[in-house]
Amino acid sequence: MSISRQKALEDVLERTPRHRERPSNKISQYYGENVFNLHTMREYLTDEACDSILDAMDNHTSISRSIADQVASALKEWAISRGATHYTHWFQPLTGATAEKHDSFITPTGDGRAIEKFDGSLLVQQEPDASSFPNGGIRNTFEARGYTLWDPTSPAFVWESTLCIPTIFISYTGFALDNKMPLLKALARVDSAATDVCQYFDKNVTKVVATLGWEQEYFLVDKSLHGARPDLQLTGRALFGAPPAKGQQLDDHYFGSIPARASAFMKEFELESHKLGIPVTTRHNEVAPNQFECAPVFEEANLANDHNLLLMEVMEQVARKHDFRVLLHEKPYPGLNGSGKHNNWSLGTNTGVNLLKPGNNPKTNLRFLTFFINTLAALHTHADIVRASFASAGNDHRLGGNEAPPAIVSAFIGSQLSELLDELETSIKAGKLTPEDKTALKLEIGRIPEVLLDNTDRNRTSTFAFTGNKFELRAVGSTANCAVPMTVLNTIVSEQLESFKVAVDQRIDKGEKKDDALLKELQKLITQSKAIRFEGNGYSDEWVVEAAKRGLSNLKNTPEALEVFNRPEVIELFEKQQVLRKEEVHARVEVELENYILKLQIEARVLLQMARGTILPAAIDYQSQLLLNVQSLNDVFGEDAMKYGGAQLDLVKQAGALIQQIHRESLELDSIHDALEKLESASEKAKGYAEKMFPCMEALGATCAQLEVTVDDALWPLPKFTELLFTR
Ligand code: ADP
Ligand code: MG
Fold this sequence. Notes:
Elements: H1 5-14, H2 27-30, H3 38-44, H4 47-59, H5 65-81, E1 86-90, E2 103-104, E3 106-108, E4 114-116, H6 120-124, E5 125-126, E6 146-150, E7 157-159, E8 162-171, H7 180-198, E9 208-222, H8 223-227, H9 230-235, H10 260-275, E10 280-285, E11 291-296, E12 299-300, H11 301-321, E13 324-327, E14 341-349, H12 362-381, H13 383-389, E15 411-412, H14 415-429, H15 435-446, H16 448-453, E16 464-466, E17 471-473, H17 483-509, H18 514-528, H19 541-550, H20 558-562, H21 568-576, H22 582-637, H23 641-677, H24 682-708, H25 721-726
Parallel strand pairs: 1-8, 15-16
Antiparallel strand pairs: 1-2, 3-4, 5-6, 6-8, 7-8, 9-11, 9-12, 9-13, 9-14, 10-11, 14-17, 16-17
Helix pairs in contact: 7-17, 10-11, 12-15, 12-17, 12-18, 14-15, 14-18, 17-18, 22-23, 22-24, 23-24
């Protein structure tokens, strides 16, 4: 039983901001104090052990058992000093969230006492009882063994008295059951492919890391109001509601001042994040009321992703202390702006160079153009996989909605870089490069930094926007595990760089000069990938038409998008890049379809229960009140009654029509739901949910919202959007 709207509203009015004290005013004094980072490692470990871990981080080497024992013992000592009593292998099952199984450090000694114990074997490998994690059929139940294995590239940390050890999660047979393992593999691949290409420009480059800077959007809602809406509680989003009279039209929320309660929450969650070494820096309001965003300084992609997952947990925990709930859903309120998680991505070298940052001379700019154009080419060839990488039930509400990029993947690079690529294309195409051509080219290439300085036009409607020194993948949903899109992006860029290298080397072997070979291959890629470049308004209807003309896909919903992973050429790509095996790809599709089906199933059931159990009774009460009034008017005024009761009678009819409609639409949703339930194949079922059931849910939700503005406010049982968004 949820709490009543009245009680919830009273609760909110009584709340005051809960300020907590900071341990010190200087962030640097507590930053990273709950992380077993390099600094702490040096204090607790021998030089030999430190070096071994650093080597594992940089060169993917393995760590010996005796070093693991040493690390485990140091970790235990350090963690206990930070108040930890338990430890857990922290991993990322395919559900999208993180999982953990806590064990205490305690081992009984046989004499009635106990000692704290934690050794290398417990650090390196664990066997969580994990038959209940989704595995897409990879792990048969009779062999329901999965292992979590320590990922030494992401430091262990203490959170809420538990030592958390980031791990990968694999089956007994070595198949990945998580999102981290494929990401690590893709990162290793792009490292090697990009390092190879860097040799054309600088022999000192021995390592390239992919960087990720995410921007997390979320909504806050008071816990009592949340508790009064079963849809928010059970599905993470309001399934219906009338739009607030004051929405985001005035845009006064964006960058406006942060309300006091929200601000107190943010301060505390930033404090906790900083202690955990998550470099959160910016906080601001977003477009919708009570919507916010936070972003960190970018980091190596695997670490950045762990930090994002951790941040989402920290946020939820801290929100509870402030009597808030965090809504991470992509579309918590129909009709209002949703939430995303932009993934800013680039490649950085061990020599300190950002490969997507234009330099200041033709040589460094040729390097920039090489990585820039190859990225565009990768996106063009593999746009559908990128689209599939951010597909989810929640994100379906956003993509194509008017605040998120459409489901069509395209890249925005700004008018000046567009012109530059066009010029390069025509000048290189002219065949053999004369010395004059080369001078002209060098001039063009040398102009990039100047060009970029005034390249401030930022296109917010693009899926993949170049923002001066990085690409920003803007279509990722707010609940997503960035590991999925990051695995795809790094895999396709690796594939593209590898084939580029082969083509350039062939030219060089045939006697062409290196720069000529590079330029000619780049020209080919510019021509090939032109269709993916779009500078216009990605939200417009014209773009949908234009994109179709260009042959770009528009995969509108999750089941359609997930099919991409089953294409033979896609599986081949993942196998060739050694990121995922065929079985693993199939398993992922199966798990994702299942996730999708479950989400929609729950939403449909909750919606039906609310429509019948909450909305209809309220509407009928309202109608009864009106009828009583009409009856009394009749009693008093007889024939003249309709002089005073005509409007009431109209309202009775209006409410009556909506009641009938809800009843009809509920029956229809019921029968579609039941019919689809009988389907055996997950993909058929998911498709039916997307194409048949989802529109019915939308229709029923819209009718409920219509009743909300018809029925007497005092009788309406659920908190309205205005209350959820503006009561603070
Ligand atoms: P906006 O909201 O205008 O897109 P923000 O400043 O909020 O800009 O976000 C920019 C994000 O890009 C930050 O998370 C930042 O860390 C990230 N970023 C900056 N440089 C890089 C880079 N080289 N690689 C990856 N991410 C980066
Ligand atoms: Mg951004």
